[in-house]
TrEMBL record:
Pfam families to which the protein is assigned, alphabetical: His_Phos_2
Catalyzed reaction equations: 1D-myo-inositol hexakisphosphate + H2O = 1D-myo-inositol 1,2,4,5,6-pentakisphosphate + phosphate; 1D-myo-inositol 1,2,6-trisphosphate + H2O = 1D-myo-inositol 1,2-bisphosphate + phosphate; 1D-myo-inositol 1,2,4,5,6-pentakisphosphate + H2O = 1D-myo-inositol 1,2,5,6-tetrakisphosphate + phosphate; 1D-myo-inositol 1,2-bisphosphate + H2O = 1D-myo-inositol 2-phosphate + phosphate
Family: Belongs to the histidine acid phosphatase family.
Keywords recorded for this protein, A-Z: Disulfide bond, Glycoprotein, Hydrolase, Secreted
Subcellular location: Secreted
Protein name: Phytase A
SUPFAM superfamilies given in the database record: Phosphoglycerate mutase-like
Any GO MF annotation of the entry: inositol hexakisphosphate 3-phosphatase activity
Active site as annotated: 137 (nucleophile), 413 (proton donor)
Highest taxon listed in the record's lineage: Eukaryota
């Protein structure tokens, strides 16, 4: 049974009849239409060159050039020093930015396949022997902690603003949902599609082995695992309902070791680096969001929006969008230009990088437990870990089997960011500046929209390939269908390393990271 059939059968009675429809728009080109100057007439040419102009024409040309230069200087100064009127801009001036891409909404982006310079298909002459997926839950409503500030902001705007500028009129009657934390209907569909896609990619392995499935204990994570599991089995023409009770749920509570959720390292949660990303974000926000705030305050007289309010209004775009059955783009998305959304994406990337990733001294350590479990599964050897792994569960073949060919784990974006760091996937990225933004191309593929969108998935593949000598298999990692060349080992042209070399390169995880600092 194909992906389309699975989607149809699973969502019958639950999802709209038109099934899954991604309404992503391409990022608009930034180039302007320019006309080429007409070719010179034959009489203007002398042996392929322009004939010299008369002196009076040259003088006139110099005057025109000087005038143009003065005009350019005035316009440039106005742009630099903020003398241009807040409305003298592009589509954002009228709230008509229809072409903005949902792939620039950071971790709030609906799932999409990230661009890959290496072919994600199985290389010719290779046979898969193992596959594991680490997945984020699907699109959700905003968290309870964020819901209150959003409602307060909208209430304040409604109470203080009488005149709404062009494009913002819809805010007058807009009400934000009261639902929090749970998966949206669209988010459920994302995991249905993910489970079916996992089967289609690894169906040869599925014929000889059922996947072992675990989920961190948050309800939205558990539901994501259930939707994925049902879809995986429905793709084979088998009812997946009976498989749901086999999912191992790891509680998210203090004192319970859980490699799918951070929370067992006090030094990370409450130590000196626990809010490292906040300062980075504030610095970038003061640069990137200031002109946006100025424009919105001009168009919403009386609102007195702050920089934080400005970001909150941008947040409403992705949450309003994924709150619809087919991720129909919200009117809030139209209020900001594509360039402003790139700044927003970078703002969210700073948070994950410096609070959970390579930029935080204890960020990678939060992913060490999962990486050590991955090493154990890849090698078939007993787990060695003294960090966040649950020694009771991982010692039992019932709760931590090593004989499966397929594994599926479900978690959150923050933990996944730490796992990427513990694996060294983005070691080439370097420190992210907080005074200007870098594109995903400049960061070697790091951006929260590329790494941890809703329903994000990391595939770890092990394969045997013709022409490779020795008994060592090859390992490859894909993040949202993008092949991420492995670091710390001798990667080949497909981004792969030999298993032994790959494990050897994970010395940070195998040595426990900086776990002693958790209790220093």
């Amino acid at each position: 049974m194909g992906v389309a059939s699975v989607l149809t059968s699973l969502v019958s009675g639950l999802l709209p009849r038109d099934g899954i429809r991604y309404k992503y728009s391409a990022v608009p080109a930034s180039t302007e239409d320019c006309e080429s100057p007409p070719p010179p007439h034959d009489e203007q040419l002398v042996h392929g060159n322009h004939r010299p102009r008369p002196l009076h024409e040259q003088a006139r040309l110099l005057k025109l050039t000087a005038g143009a230069m003065i005009l350019f200087a005035v316009l440039a100064a106005a742009a630099v020093y903020g003398q241009a009127h807040p409305d003298s801009r592009g589509c954002e001036a009228t709230g008509s930015c229809d072409g903005v891409s949902p792939h620039t909404w950071g971790q709030y982006s609906p799932y999409f396949s990230a661009p890959s310079s290496l072919d994600p298909a199985l290389p010719h002459g290779c046979e898969l022997t193992f596959a594991a997926v680490l997945s984020r839950h699907g699109s959700r409503y905003t968290t309870k902690a964020k819901s209150s500030p959003y409602h307060q902001l909208l209430d304040r705007i409604h109470a203080s603003v009488d005149k709404y500028g062009k494009g913002l009129e819809f805010i007058r009657d807009y009400t934000f949902t009261n639902r929090v934390d749970d998966l949206t209907l669209y988010g459920q569909k994302e995991l249905v599609q993910s489970g079916a896609a996992f089967y289609q990619r690894y169906k040869d392995l599925a014929h000889g082995s059922e996947p072992f499935v675990r989920a961190s204990g948050s309800p939205r994570v558990v539901m994501s695992a259930q939707n994925f599991t049902r879809a995986f089995y429905e793709a084979q023409g088998i009812s997946g309902m009976g498989k749901l009770e086999q999912i191992l749920v790891l509680p998210e509570k203090v004192g319970f070791n859980n490699t799918l959720d951070h929370g067992t390292c006090p030094g990370f949660e409450d130590g000196p680096w626990s809010a490292l990303g906040d300062g980075k974000q504030e610095n970038w926000r003061s640069i990137w969001a200031a002109p946006i705030m100025e424009r919105l305050n001009h168009k919403l007289p009386g609102a007195n929006l702050t920089l934080e309010d400005t970001v909150y209004l941008m947040d409403l775009c992705p949450f309003d969008t994924v709150g619809t059955p087919n991720a129909t783009k919200s009117d809030f998305c139209r209020l900001f230009s594509q360039e402003e959304w790139h700044g927003y994406d970078y703002y969210l990337s700073l948070d994950k990088w410096y609070n959970y990733g390579n930029g935080n001294p204890l960020g990678p350590t939060q992913g060490v437990g999962y990486v050590n479990e991955l090493i154990s599964r890849l090698t078939g050897k007993a787990l060695v870990d003294n960090t966040s792994a649950n020694s009771t569960l991982d010692a039992s073949p019932d709760t931590f089997p090593l004989d499966r060919k397929l594994y599926a784990d479900f978690s959150h974006d923050s933990l996944m960011t730490s796992v990427y760091a513990a694996l060294g996937l983005y070691n080439r990225t370097g420190d992210l500046p907080d005074t200007h933004k870098l594109s995903p191309g400049q960061t070697h593929g790091y951006s929260t929209s590329w790494t941890v969108p809703f329903a994000a998935r990391m595939y770890v593949e092990k394969m045997r390939c013709a022409g490779h000598t020795g008994s060592d298999e090859l390992v490859r990692i894909l993040v949202n269908d993008r092949v991420v060349p492995l670091q710390g080992c001798r990667a080949d042209g497909h981004g792969r390393c030999r298993l032994g070399d790959f494990v050897e390169g994970l010395s940070f995880a195998r040595s426990g990271g900086h776990w002693p600092l958790c209790y220093a």
